[in-house]
Design brief:
It holds the Pfam family Acyl-CoA_dh_N. With 391 residues, the chain is α+β, with helices and mostly antiparallel strands. Helix content is 51%, strand content 14%. The protein is built from 10 helices and 10 strands. The strands form 3 sheets. The protein has a 4-stranded mixed beta sheet. Strands 2-3-7-6 form a 4-stranded antiparallel beta sheet, with no helix packed on it. Strands 9-10 form a two-stranded antiparallel sheet. The longest helix has 37 residues.
């Protein structure tokens, strides 16, 4: 038997721990100071993008073969988690870069990978993901955006809604119907560029949280793109989209972990300083029980998320399936529910102060809410889990 010191089954590697330390110090120095202003002004966190690009942390998942850092799925989770701990809006930079580009990594031709992953890895471009539409949210297969073949081109027409970082990203993975008779098997995936003629954007949505990450509609008006910009074979777009989400739901769990950790850290510090009835409120058992429950939920969510990330990585490296669809949905659903509970309790622990913008907790609570909604609502995650129960 291995000695207990070498028993590494349920802990991240030393490299992962070192990555966490370096991302945390960068986030606290270069991202945290702007988080409140980014939220207040509902502006893109340019400082965060600059800091992440300068440290090669904006798209760590891109394979080394295309100029990327080649980070594994757990390393990607740790980057997103540590950024979200100080600013959830900023964590959408590495998260959505993975979401937008993963279809190309999973199904794209070698030419597409070279053309689009290089600039992403360099920090010259960001990548968004266009699946949802005004009438196709949870029922993504009911989309109406069409792509019609015209010689060596495809012509796209339609509207995509709730597109994260729209208008800032240079590249967009767009799902469109190429054969209306076949429902999900008649959907194909394409790379559309911001500069393509006929691409435009709606006004930024006025949101409850993640205000620093622009969410806009993407309009496709007779957008003609070369046929070689199709990702994978015709009719495989929906399958690619769903496979992508199996991997990227784990990044939403990572955001939830980060924002929950930030809230718990802040509340823990506050209850040690705040005195009532002649002693710190952290000395009262009622407060201690709240903190214990918050920490317990967070740790359970983290273990589930990291286990899902490890499965994602093994599958990406060519391993067997390992129930990733279940584990990705479970991690996203559990972690986001936990984050909402933990941030709400953190606001409670600060009392009236928690309800004001002078403290970061009301922002964290607002930001946590979206993790229960996007990349598939938690109601949809429960349907996904029920259909994919581990054997």
């Amino acid at each position: 038997m291995a000695g207990t010191a070498d028993f590494d089954l349920y802990r991240p590697s030393e490299e992962h721990d070192m990555l966490r330390e370096s991302v945390r110090s960068l986030a606290e120095a270069k991202i945290a100071p702007f988080a409140a202003a980014v939220d207040e002004e509902a502006r893109f966190p340019q400082e965060a993008l600059d800091a992440l690009v300068a440290n090669d942390l904006h798209a760590v998942h891109v394979p080394e073969a295309y100029g990327g850092a080649g980070a594994d799925a757990l390393a990607t989770v740790i980057v997103i988690e540590e950024v979200a701990r100080v600013c959830c809006s900023s964590s959408l930079i590495p998260a959505v870069n993975k979401l937008g580009s993963l279809p190309v990594i999973l199904s794209g031709s070698e030419e597409l990978k070279k053309k689009y992953l290089g600039p992403l890895a360099k920090g010259d471009a960001m990548f968004s993901y266009c699946l949802s539409e005004p009438d196709a949210g949870s029922d993504a297969a009911g989309m109406k955006t069409k792509a019609v073949r015209d010689g060596d081109y495809w012509v796209l027409n339609g509207v995509k809604r709730w597109i994260t970082n729209a208008g800032v990203s240079e590249y967009y993975t767009v799902m469109a119907v190429t054969d209306p008779e076949k429902r999900s098997k008649g959907i194909s995936a394409f790379v559309v560029e911001k500069g393509d003629e006929g691409v435009s954007f709606g006004a930024p949505e006025k949101k409850l949280g993640i205000k620093g990450s622009p969410t806009r509609e993407v309009y496709l008006d007779n957008v003609r793109i070369p046929a070689d910009r199709m990702i994978g074979a015709e009719g495989t777009g929906f399958a690619t989209a769903m496979k992508t989400l199996d991997h990227t739901r784990i990044t939403i769990a990572a955001q939830a972990l980060g924002v929950a950790q930030g809230a718990l850290d802040y509340a823990k510090g506050y209850v040690q300083e705040r005195k009532q009835f002649g002693k710190p409120i952290g000395d009262f058992q009622g407060v201690q029980f709240m903190l214990a429950d918050m920490a317990m939920k967070l740790e359970a969510a983290r273990q589930l998320t990291y286990a899902a990330a490890a499965k994602s990585e093994r599958i990406s490296a060519g391993g067997k399936d390992e129930d990733l669809t279940f584990f990705g949905a479970a991690a996203k659903c559990y972690a986001s529910d936990a984050a909402m509970e933990i941030t709400t309790d953190a606001v409670q622990l600060l009392g009236g102060y928690g309800y004001t913008r002078d403290y970061p907790l009301e922002r964290m609570m607002r930001d946590a809410k979206i993790t229960q909604i996007y990349e598939g609502t938690n109601q949809v995650q429960r349907i996904v889990m029920a259909r994919n129960l581990p054997q």
